[in-house]
């Protein structure tokens, strides 16, 4: 059975001062790097994943510590939310992911900096490094950046569990636009 899962997506526009976001299905984000652009993810050791090497296979130790997230087009007057998920984590039920990070109220200026080793914001689900189980093959680690329509007043509900995180359900009713930028890397045991 094929399910269509809808989430907020890239295009936002303003009508009468109210931000409107269009919708797209999450499957388009899982089809490869064509839709995952604009975000740099840099490890503490200096390994960077971005548009030029999206989907690169890296040892899991590269991102053992929380990486620096950068978005050159971030608006310094806006705030953002970062979500990193693993769609390949067992039991691999369509639309469910393992949640590796949920960080909100990130100032746009913080996403533009190059001097920091960690992106500032509020950790609602702190960073959990890649831990693909033995024998499960390469896992994709997809990082999505959303713009917060309500400025720094965004107070997300914290998912009760990292596993079986349903991104589309969690996004429903939130004042988020995007993803405005994204990237992915792969890792295996």
Automatic annotation (TrEMBL):
UniProt keyword list: Signal
A Pfam family hit: PBP
UniProt xrefs under InterPro entries: PEBP, PEBP-like_sf, PEBP_euk
Record-linked CDD domains: PEBP_euk
Name used for this protein in its record: Phosphatidylethanolamine-binding protein
Signal peptide: 1-16
